[in-house]
């Protein structure tokens, strides 16, 4: 089998994974705790966390949801990214961006490599948008779409799960390794197990920040690429792929990593078995039973300042190192907010909620939070009426 | 009929003489060729003389011929060709002579020949009698080649500086209008050039008075004659000129009078494209981009055009289907008059028949539409019919 | 003593005889060589046209050659002086039109292209296509004060309103360099279309219009689509990309004083149609596109007449009141004068569903072309004097600037740029190359399809080998003097043959070139050089990857150790230095529509800028040669390569051709 052929095989696996994700997404929210419970690790300690956060921290309590009825091409939203004045979402029927109070959709008829858009990043220097699809990498640039695939370009594989713009280069995490494209030099590079400590070339996420590029390899832990030295290093779960994490703070909680985020000197890693944090000195693990994490099944993580936002199959959470805030949708369509410092405070109800508890992505545009879910994308902001302090100084719902 | 022709010729000649008198680019000429009517003969008899300047002695060019007319100078500014006959019962033939009167000799033709003009490389194009009218021929070192294949008359060839031949054409019907067509020197690419002003009749040949500018005469129903000057690059309606005044020649004997005057000066030999005609081949190719593109009104009782019928003077050659985009591609017998008509699914004529056309052996003719506006350049797309290959007619196979 | 002269006489006789025989034999042999190499039977072919006259450099070249300025583009300084880029003179000429004198020549590099100045006329910026940089000129001292590296083959430029940012079109790298002038650095690259060429700023806002010259990549056998890239100078963002459907070779650009309309010069090729004829716009038509700067609507209208083409519209400028536009036709030696209000009125009146038909209407020009002003040979860059009274025309191969009265269209004479009066043989060929005078109805010049001797990136259906058959990709003419045979079918053994009888018969459809003109034209083509290859770097990641790619290119065994037959190795058919063996090969790429499946092995140097690829141009990228069009390893054994190896091979190919200063 040629490499191209092998790539396809991986692609099929990737699609299967998505189908699984879709099935999960379609399940009633009430099933989710049980599903999560079966994957719950045991024997963990409460980790030590970073700097304290002012109690005035506001809670996102106003949500508006957009679905197909609001102009999205599909309500199955895999990813969301805000940048350059627009908010982009990737769905299973094309990508769409929010501009001038409406959604504008691009699909294969516009040149998009495939209708299923799994990852998006925006080039802050040019405003160009890079979209990872099931059949290649597309660049949207002021309305024109150029698509790169494993046939017409040096892209290692057509199934692109993650995209990150780093300077003049674009990184693509694919089902058969990582591609790096130097847009100016028109130079494609490939990182696989052949030239990087990539124990598994099925890569799921990529994040670039502060001179470092992190790769989440599905089954291979996390890889770190130092742009200054062009050197790789890898981070693995000392327990490897054991589904129970014997020593949660000894390293990554699991090698099946799905998302990475880096900011303020801290690396966050999402896995299907919990959240990992690495500050350069020590690792910490977070799980649903001992933290504010709604579920150990993490689809994506995203850093906002000193906070990390975690997208799980049971809701959305934000964590600043001290206080957890988690958002979920109740069966009646209203929202549920839970705050946890050392223990859960009673949940509060908000009149609006995220679109669905199966959350696949989150991003921020100023004060606004955008959340990609299995049944629409939600735009949230804080009215200012609810702060973390409310949970510790008063009781009862709004 | 002969009388009518003679009178038309007379009018044309007078017009041409006026053109000389108006000081065109021809004013730098060294010689003037004159067709002079001999006194009061009946029928009208003419001779050809040359004069180096007004007042200079006349040089007889048609010495020994009972009748001669229509002198045409060669690009070298020395030789002259005209039509003449040695006796009343002789057919008209071609005669060549030096402008000084030396070396008069007959250019053998196999038929009655008139209105000669020099083409490239000493070849002479002329109108020759054919069974059903007149056609254009070219006589050169390698023999004689018939150039035009339309029913009716093709007369008065004029060779432009660009090498193209402009000639007058009239269909066989009594009321058929005369129009100017043009073609390459090998008879390929013939098409309508100037249709003339409605309500007038074209008379005589065109004269090229400046690069890409021709002048010709139009006779109105009331018998008045006007010259019209048309820029054949722009191909607009042109400018109407005042009726001609009598030429100043002098030194004419008795009742002789000038009926035609042509100046002689050396000019560049008209370029001639290398002929694509291959006499060894019996067919040529017609292809059209969209048979539905036409400025003719379709038959209101017919359905959409789906086929194209090719008709010759002796019946139908065959029918071929139009491609979905209206294109067609057909091999047809060369050097035969052809007409095209589009048919609907039931065989009814949608548009047509077209004007008569022909292809030379090995010629490929492309058409934008069928009787489309002549000012339209073709659209740039691949005609579907080309993908199928040509239909062979007669026969109909691919 | 007596015997000696007798012997000597005999010896001399013998020697003379031998000499005569030798010379005769040598002459016969050389004549045979000349006929064989030229593919012609013309007796006048000798050594000189091929081996001497094409040489434009070297110690003796000045004997038969000369150096010419070749004015390309113009800018008017507020003080009335005229700035002229000398494309082949490597300098910016400062000209005083009043005195008709060249005041100064400022060296600005290998191939100056465009020049602009700031509003007050203190600083000029000049792009150097050869050196990939912008020269900053202090106009007071007429000195170059700095150079700023930008992308490859920079062409047009524009300043933002604050004159702190310069936007530069990089035609070699298909992007726009954003130059921060205070720091003197290019800080950003914005992706453009294909071959961004001309740039103009809107007079009323921060919109910068970038006109791309060539078609963006399209599906095989689809019409060209050329992009206009609109940039917001304030945000340094591309804000809109406008398609010029069915158009390309878009080179000239002007924006009306009200900022409402951009006027773009275009060619509309008919490359998808069999070239059965060229009259009535069957090969190429030429026109303008009106771009509504607000709505993005494009209206294309022709400048041709029904039976006369005006080939190669190159530049367009407007009178200060915006009522007249002047378009230089580099191949027709004419400036067309356009009534802009009439043009705009017509454009506004055309309904959207009639746009395609109007774009092909050869009679429309009667409504807005009010004059055709004849010029000297090869008119290219245009400028209007500050007072609006004079139109300046850069007559490139005549090395002079013509002045034309804007109000009357009258010729006011020329400003010679001091080049030699004599026209060298190669220069004569260059003039012929750029002239449409040798095609029926002036339909096209060699340059129409081979801008600067390169390629227009289109695929053509030429007639003699069948309608709809034998589609051929247009290739570059640079550096091909030693790469015979010619044509993809390899049917022409020499450029004399290529540009000779059959070329006239099937393409120009008029009389062939005279022998002397043909020789001059061939000499010029043989003198053409590639631009420096922007991907040929001595170090860096590209060089490392290229070195890995070279080993793949030259490899003799597959990844699993099987020996690759010598015939199936890349380097066998593509040996250096030009990476062709000059032979025919069937690499499995023949299409059903191809009469023959063996094609001339192409040169691989400077490949990155000459796509699309393969004989019929079906591959838009190099990768596709192997991922799509080599399923059976007939185009070299490659299916065992990993994707990473393939990438290295592609990088190696992109770097072939070498960097030059």
Describe the protein.
The complex is a heterotrimer of chains A (about 400), B (about 400) and C (about 650). Chain A is mainly beta and about 400 residues long. A six-stranded antiparallel sheet of chain A has the order 22-23-24-25-26-27, with no helix packed on it. In chain A, strands 1-30-29-28 form a four-stranded antiparallel sheet, with no helix packed on it. Chain A is globular, with a radius of gyration of 20 Å. Chain A has helices spanning about 5-25, 30-35, 390-395; strands spanning about 60-65, 75-85, 85-90, 95-100, 100-105, 115-120, 130-135, 135-140, 145-150, 160-165, 170-175, 175-180, 185-190, 205-210, 210-215, 220-225, 230-235, 255-265, 265-270, 275-280, 285, 300-305, 305-310, 315-320, 325-330, 335-340, 350, 360-365, 370-375, 375-380. The longest helix of chain A has 24 residues, at about 5-25. Mean pLDDT of chain A is about 85; it is low at about 1-55 and about 395-398. Chain A contains three helices and 30 strands. Chain B has about 400 residues and is mostly beta strands. Helices cover about 5% and strands about 40% of the residues of chain B. Chain B has two helices and 28 strands. Chain B has a four-stranded antiparallel sheet with strand order 3-2-1-20. In chain B, about 50% of the residues are buried. Mean pLDDT of chain B is about 85; it is low at about 1-30. With about 650 residues, chain C is α+β, with helices and mostly antiparallel strands. Helices cover about 20% and strands about 30% of the residues of chain C. A four-stranded antiparallel sheet of chain C has the order 1-2-3-4, with no helix packed on it. A four-stranded antiparallel sheet of chain C has the order 5-6-7-8, with no helix packed on it. The longest helix of chain C is centred in the N-terminal third of the chain and has 36 residues, at about 5-40. The interface of B and C includes residues 285, 364 and 377 of B.
Task: List the keywords.
heterotrimer; B: 398 residues; mainly beta; 28 strands; 6% helix; 41% strand; C: 661 residues; alpha+beta; 4-stranded antiparallel beta sheet; 29% strand; globular; disordered N terminus
């Amino acid at each position: 089998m040629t490499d191209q052929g092998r790539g396809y095989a991986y692609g099929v696996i990737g699609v299967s994974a998505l189908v699984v994700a879709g099935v999960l997404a379609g399940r009633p929210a009430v099933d989710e705790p049980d599903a999560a419970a079966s994957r719950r690790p045991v024997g963990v300690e409460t980790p030590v966390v970073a700097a304290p956060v002012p109690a005035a921290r506001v809670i996102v309590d106003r949500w508006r949801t957009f679905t197909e009825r609001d102009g999205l091409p599909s309500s199955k939203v895999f990813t969301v990214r805000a940048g350059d004045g627009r908010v982009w979402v990737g769905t299973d029927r094309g990508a769409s961006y929010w501009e001038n109070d409406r959604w504008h959709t691009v699909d294969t008829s516009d040149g998009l490599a495939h209708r299923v858009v799994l990852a998006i990043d925006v080039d802050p220097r040019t405003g160009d948008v890079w979209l990872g699809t099931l059949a290649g990498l597309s660049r949207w640039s002021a309305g024109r779409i150029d698509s790169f695939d494993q046939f017409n370009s040096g892209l290692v594989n057509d199934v692109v799960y993650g995209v990150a713009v780093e300077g003049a280069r674009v990184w693509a995490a694919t089902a058969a390794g990582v591609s790096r494209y130097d847009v100016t030099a028109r130079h494609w590079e490939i990182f696989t197990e052949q030239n990087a400590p990539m124990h598994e070339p099925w890569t799921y996420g990529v994040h670039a920040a502060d001179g470092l590029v992190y790769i989440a390899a599905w089954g291979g832990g996390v890889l770190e690429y130092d742009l200054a030295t062009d050197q790789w290093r890898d981070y693995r779960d000392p327990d490897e792929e054991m589904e129970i994490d014997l020593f949660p703070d000894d390293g990554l909680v699991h090698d099946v990593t799905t998302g990475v985020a880096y900011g303020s000197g801290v690396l966050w890693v999402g896995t299907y078995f919990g959240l990992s944090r690495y500050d350069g000195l020590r690792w910490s693990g977070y799980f649903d039973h001992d933290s504010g994490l709604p579920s150990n099944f993490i689809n994506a993580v995203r850093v906002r300042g000193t906070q990390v936002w975690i997208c799980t199959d049971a809701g959305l959470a934000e964590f600043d190192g001290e206080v957890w805030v988690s958002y979920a949708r109740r069966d009646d369509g209203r929202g549920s907010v839970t705050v946890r410092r050392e223990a859960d405070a009673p949940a509060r109800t908000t009149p609006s909620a995220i679109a669905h508890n199966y959350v696949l992505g989150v991003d921020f545009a100023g004060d606004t939070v955008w959340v990609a879910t299995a049944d629409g994308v939600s735009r949230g902001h804080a009215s200012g009426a609810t702060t973390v302090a409310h949970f510790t100084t008063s009781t009862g719902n709004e | 009929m002969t009388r009518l022709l003679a009178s038309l010729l007379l009018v044309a000649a007078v017009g041409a003489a006026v053109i000389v008198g108006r000081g065109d680019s021809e004013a730098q000429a060294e010689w003037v060729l004159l067709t002079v009517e001999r006194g009061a003969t009946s029928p009208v008899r003419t001779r050809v003389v040359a004069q180096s300047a007004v007042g200079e002695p006349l040089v007889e060019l048609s010495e020994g011929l009972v009748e001669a007319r229509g002198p045409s100078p060669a690009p070298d500014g020395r030789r002259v060709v005209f039509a003449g006959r040695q006796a009343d019962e002789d057919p008209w033939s071609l005669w060549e002579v030096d402008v000084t009167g030396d070396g008069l000799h007959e250019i053998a033709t196999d038929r009655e020949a008139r209105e000669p003009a020099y083409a490239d490389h000493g070849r002479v194009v002329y109108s020759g009698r054919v069974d059903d009218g007149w056609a254009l021929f070219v006589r050169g070192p390698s023999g004689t080649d018939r150039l035009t294949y339309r029913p009716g008359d093709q007369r008065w060839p004029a060779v432009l500086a660009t090498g193209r031949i402009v000639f007058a054409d009239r269909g066989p019907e009594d009321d058929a209008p005369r129009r100017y067509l043009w073609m390459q020197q090998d008879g390929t690419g013939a098409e309508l050039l100037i249709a003339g002003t409605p309500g007038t009749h074209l008379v005589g040949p065109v004269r090229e008075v400046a690069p890409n500018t021709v002048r010709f005469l139009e006779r109105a129903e009331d018998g008045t004659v006007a010259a019209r000057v048309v820029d054949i690059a722009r191909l607009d309606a042109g400018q109407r000129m005042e009726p001609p005044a009598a030429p100043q020649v002098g030194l004419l004997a008795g009742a002789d009078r000038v009926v035609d005057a042509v100046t002689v000066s050396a000019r560049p030999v008209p370029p001639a494209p290398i002929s694509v005609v291959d006499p060894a081949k019996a067919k040529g190719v017609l292809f059209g981009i969209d048979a539905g593109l036409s400025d003719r009104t379709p038959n209101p009782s017919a359905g959409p055009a789906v086929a194209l019928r090719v008709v010759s003077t002796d019946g139908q050659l065959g029918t071929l289907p139009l491609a979905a985009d209206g294109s067609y591609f057909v091999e047809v017998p060369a050097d035969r008059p052809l007409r095209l008509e589009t048919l609907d699914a039931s065989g009814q004529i949608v548009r047509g028949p077209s004007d008569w056309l022909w292809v030379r052996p090995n010629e490929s003719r492309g058409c934008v539409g069928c009787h489309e506006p002549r000012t339209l350049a073709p659209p740039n797309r691949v005609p579907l019919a080309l993908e199928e290959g040509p239909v062979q007619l007669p026969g109909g196979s691919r | 003593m007596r015997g000696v002269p007798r012997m000597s006489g005999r010896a001399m006789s013998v020697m003379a005889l031998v000499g005569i025989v030798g010379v005769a034999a040598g002459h016969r042999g050389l004549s045979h060589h000349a006929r064989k190499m030229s593919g012609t039977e013309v007796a006048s072919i000798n050594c000189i046209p091929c081996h001497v006259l094409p040489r434009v450099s070297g110690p003796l070249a000045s004997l038969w050659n000369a150096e010419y300025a070749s004015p390309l583009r113009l800018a008017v300084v507020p003080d009335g002086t005229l700035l002229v880029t000398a494309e082949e003179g490597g300098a910016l000429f400062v000209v005083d039109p009043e005195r008709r004198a060249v005041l100064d020549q400022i060296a600005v590099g290998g191939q100056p292209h465009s020049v602009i100045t700031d509003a007050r006329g203190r600083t000029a910026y000049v792009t150097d296509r050869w050196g990939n940089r912008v020269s900053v000129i202090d106009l007071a001292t007429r000195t170059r004060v700095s150079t700023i590296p930008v992308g490859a083959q920079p062409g047009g430029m524009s300043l933002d309103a604050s004159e702190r940012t310069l936007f530069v079109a990089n035609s070699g790298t298909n992007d726009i360099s954003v130059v921060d002038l205070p720091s003197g650095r290019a800080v950003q690259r914005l992706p453009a279309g294909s071959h961004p060429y001309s740039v103009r700023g809107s007079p009323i806002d921060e919109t910068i219009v970038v006109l791309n010259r060539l078609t963006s990549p399209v599906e095989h056998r689809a019409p060209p689509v050329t992009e206009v890239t609109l940039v917001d100078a304030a945000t340094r963002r591309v804000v809109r990309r406008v398609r010029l459907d069915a158009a390309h070779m878009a080179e000239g650009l002007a924006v009306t004083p009200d900022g409402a309309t951009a006027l773009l010069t275009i060619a509309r090729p008919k490359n998808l149609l069999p070239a059965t004829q060229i009259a009535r716009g069957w090969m190429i038509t030429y026109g303008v596109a009106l771009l509504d700067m607000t709505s993005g609507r494009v209206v294309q209208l022709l400048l041709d007449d029904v039976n006369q083409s005006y080939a190669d519209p190159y530049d367009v400028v407007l009178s200060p009141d915006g009522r007249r536009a002047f378009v230089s036709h580099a191949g027709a030696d004419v400036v067309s004068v356009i009534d802009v209000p009439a043009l705009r009125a017509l454009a506004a009146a055309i309904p959207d569903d009639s746009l395609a038909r109007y774009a092909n209407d050869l009679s429309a020009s009667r409504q807005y072309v009010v004059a055709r002003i004849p010029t000297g040979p090869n008119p290219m860059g245009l400028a209007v004097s500050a007072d609006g009274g004079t139109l300046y025309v850069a007559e490139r191969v005549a090395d002079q600037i013509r002045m034309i009265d804007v109000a009357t269209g009258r010729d006011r004479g020329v400003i010679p740029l001091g080049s030699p009066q004599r026209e060298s043989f190669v220069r004569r060929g260059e003039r012929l190359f750029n002239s449409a005078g040798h095609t029926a109805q002036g339909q096209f010049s060699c340059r129409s399809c081979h801008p600067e001797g390169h390629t227009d990136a289109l695929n053509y259906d030429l007639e003699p080998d069948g309608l709809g058959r034998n589609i051929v990709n247009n290739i570059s003419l640079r550096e091909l003097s030693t790469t015979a045979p010619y044509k993809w079918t390899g049917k022409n053994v020499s450029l004399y043959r290529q540009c000779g009888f059959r070329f006239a018969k099937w393409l120009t459809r008029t009389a062939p070139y005279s022998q002397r003109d043909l020789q001059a034209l061939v000499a010029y083509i043989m003198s053409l050089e590639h631009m420096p290859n922007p991907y040929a770097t001595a170090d860096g990641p590209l060089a490392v990857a290229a070195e890995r790619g070279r080993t793949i290119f030259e490899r003799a065994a597959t990844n699993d150790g099987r020996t690759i037959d010598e015939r199936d190795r890349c380097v066998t058919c593509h040996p250096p230095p030009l990476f062709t063996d000059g032979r025919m090969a069937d690499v499995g790429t023949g299409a059903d529509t191809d009469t023959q499946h063996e094609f001339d092995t192409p040169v691989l140097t400077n490949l990155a800028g000459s796509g699309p690829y393969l004989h019929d141009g079906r591959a838009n990228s190099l990768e596709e040669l192997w991922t799509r069009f080599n399923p059976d390893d007939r185009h070299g054994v490659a299916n065992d390569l990993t994707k990473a190896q393939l990438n290295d091979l592609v990088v190696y190919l992109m770097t072939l051709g070498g960097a030059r200063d």
